[in-house]
TrEMBL record:
This is Thioredoxin. Residues 1-22 form the signal peptide. InterPro entries: Thioredoxin-like_sf (IPR036249), Thioredoxin_domain (IPR013766). It comes from Agromyces flavus. One of its GO terms (molecular function) is isomerase activity.
Amino acid sequence: MNPRSTSAVTVLIGVLALTGCAAPTTDAAGTGMAGARTPTPTPTADASTPPAADTPIPETPSAPAPGAYVEYTDGAIEATAGQKVLFFHASWCPQCRTLDEELRALGAPDGLTVFKVDYDSRTDLRQKYGVTLQTTVVFVDDRGELISSSVLYDDPSVASLVAAVP
């Protein structure tokens, strides 16, 4: 074996030994469970716990009920009753994350469906509605026609979203 292969094997054996992956240990009964711990159940979130920021919000295969916060999908505007707004969100934008977290924690305002639109990938919608800044919210009618828009960059909150409702 050449010296380079010997070094690589030595390093690999050392890593395996340090991580405990080299060989399973067994208890006196030979069950392979020496030192094993009984898993501790993790506490589950109750209904009052807001979803984590990395929890995906549902897409809209069927029409959401008014007052929902959902990912935008093509055709969702026409399939959704009630007031609706497009929230142009960018994952790299701290103000967008602030509003997103608040919408996840508090939910959408009653009677308003908030569609989360990816600012970076949906350039077609940005162009259609004249959106040039993330945190823009665009209120649309049942056909997807612009009613009004507002930029919530300076105050990315549900309260500002409610204040912007036409």
